[in-house]
Task: structure prediction
Amino acid sequence: MDKEDMILEELRKLNAKVDTMQQNVSQLKEDVAQLKEDSEITRTGVNALIEWAEDVSNAIRFPLPKLK
Result:
């Protein structure tokens, strides 16, 4: 192998590594997008639970009279 062939081989290896890295970055972007969506869903659920808890705590402060 002469120097040109060695350089070309190294370039092929580097290109293969770059391709792998680009695939990994694309997957990471998809994962981040999914995490954003999931966190919005979770936040909405938590906010609903907090609102419910506040409503329940108000009901406990003003209980209905017991019927005899």
The chain has one helix and no strands. Helices lie at 3-61. The mean pLDDT is 90.
